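Input record (one chain):
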Amino acid sequence: MTDVRTTDAGVEFLERLLERSERNPDRSRRASAAPEYDRLSTAQQVSRFHDQMAAAERFGAVEVQRGKRDRGHLIERVRVRDPELLARHLGRPTAPAIAQRVREELLPIAAAGQPWVGALLDEMSARWARSEAAYRLTSGQADAAKEFFTLLASISRQEARGLDARTFSQKATNDTKAFDRHASRLAAVLGVRIGKPGAAADVVWAHLGLERFSHPVHLRGPVAVEGSKGRIVDGSAKPFASIHPEMLSQLSVLERPTAILTIENYASFNRQVREIEDGSLVVYTGGFPAAGIIELLTKVLAVVPAEVPFLHWGDVDAGGVRIFRYLEESLPRGPRPHLMTKELAEKAGSPAEADPSLASIARSDSLIGGLAEWLAFGSDVRHLEQEALDPAPASELGRAG
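The corresponding structure, as predicted from the sequence alone:
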């Protein structure tokens, strides 16, 4: 067999042809390409390229089509005749063979998880067999893929619940940084798995019960954390108090709030707790609420009478709508929109493109469904950042939503 392992224009050309064949193995017309003579700057390079194409043709891997008449000395097109022979000629296995070998290495790891982990391996193997990357992993990254599937299998067995990311990573892979290396692809896979494709990573981790060391919950209102030696945190402290999720077992509601108001953005939260004194319990969500925030709200909603209004104030855009819907789906009682209306956005918002990805929320029974419908399919959509509005009391008159 001709040795073509030295990387040069001819080898790269044949590799590209083989990759085209492998990416679409069922194509009716065999992969072909025209040489790029502009890249061959010397007569020696042209001669070597022609020799390599002739060697591949003799091996039965390709067919070479030459020019006619005065272009008879040039190659016009090279067409793949047999992808397996071309791979042998290039001195490497075919993509399907590589994919199958990697799949066999990963199968015992995937089989230790829930069935969906094995289904994901089948999906990724099919893409590797077409010389494609899958979740930014190629078939040549077997060690990284083993780490990825080890983490997934462990997550599927509920072994991440209650742990921070570094501790979980150490327990699953004996490497504290493995989770960080795969965090974005884990979030992509698991977001689809929990029915929230494209969701922020924190939302995914919250569903798993996994947090990268939980953040304190910022709030202002009639709640407190009591310890054995007295009050540890007073929720009425100015401008606001911070409660770590580990303290939530000691949380108590001191008196009935006039309302419960969650706020998406930090600037608006700060203005609300500084400028509005209406007896509400105000909680900062920091975008998509983490598990600690959901736990706190669940605890509060369980003891506060149902007639106490529960409101959420966020941006009028796709992200704001998804956060609102997430609160509805995650809590025993969903919020009502506060200062989140089409009318306010039309008055103070900025022009934006419709976002059809909100269709599922628009068609649901969500209290934000009407706004989602407009943002998804409206002809004159506008987005409104909540910082553009002044805070308002969490009451019937101040709600404007």
